[in-house]
Amino acid sequence: MDTGTHLAMGIGLYGLAHLDPTLLQDTQISYAILFATTIGSQIPDCDTLYRLKGNSAYIRNHRGWTHSLPMLLLWPTLITVVLSFFLTENYLHVWLWSFLAVFIHIFIDLFNAYGTQALKPFSNRWISWNVINIFDPFIFVIHLIGFGLWFISPISPGLIFAAIYLIMITYVSWRTWVHAKKSKWVKKQVGEPGKYTVLPTIRWNDWKVVLRQQNRVRMGEIRQGQIKWTGELSTKDLQHPAAIHSKEAEPISSFLSFTSFGYPIVYSRSYGYEVRWFDVRYHHKKNFPFLAVALLDHQLNLIDSFVGWISEEQLDKKVQHMLS
């Protein structure tokens, strides 16, 4: 999920924590649990610091080890150790609430298309269940409603957010059911062999579709109960020598370590080859905003490379800059 939603969920968990009698004992433990839930809801995304090392490092590591199985225990322990300097007791309660915040952060991230490497170190596989958008207005709005009720209502925040999270669990379960139903419907409607992937959008009733076949990849949308194909890529350039050699570039390697939906187009240029790798999941209005590019000379030696989110116009300028 996005940073704002994770923050809202951290504060919401503090509201839920009012069901814990320990929180009501004194102000000190109350503040400790507030810090535990808000920090715990954010700390797996500390890998954003990899941006300082460049896009390649960020893409390779974001939602990687910071969202892994060992960190489910290590993050709450680190948070509790830091807060222990300000506490004299009730460490277990602080650890449990920070654990719940970290767990929910990592678990809810599995439901969007970006996914996480939550099974590290046992598997480097990206897990993405494609159920909810990376920003889901419904989840965010029900938290805002909860905060409003907390501010104006005499009802305990613990009861308010117990209801909020029951609603959220029901909502995510419903979306999971809809996704499974929609996936079966798409296969039946299209009726072609291949691997189908149905992806969420910010709108409940609109979905994206990716159909990967032996010779091509098709991208489309589901709107108003109909499938509209919006783009297509040939898979022939996967075997092009320039595409194969481009994988040796760190940005391309990082890109492909993150996505199994990467497909290249190789362009012959005066200096050699330009290889553009597209993540077809993010196809939008005939463009691919998330991509990686490698420039190679005629002997397939790397000239320069890039990975990131960029518009087509910006990319053309970027390529010219890389050549200069």
From TrEMBL:
It holds the Pfam family YdjM. It comes from the Bacteria. Coiled coil: none annotated. GO terms for molecular function: hydrolase activity. Keywords: Hydrolase, Membrane, Transmembrane, Transmembrane helix. The chain crosses the membrane at residues 69-88, 94-114, 126-152, 158-178. The keyword Membrane applies. InterPro entries: Transcription_regulator (IPR053170), YdjM-like (IPR007404). The keyword Hydrolase applies. PANTHER family: HYPOTHETICAL MEMBRANE SPANNING PROTEIN, MEMBRANE-BOUND METAL-DEPENDENT HYDROLASE. This is Hydrolase. It comes from Thermoflavimicrobium daqui.
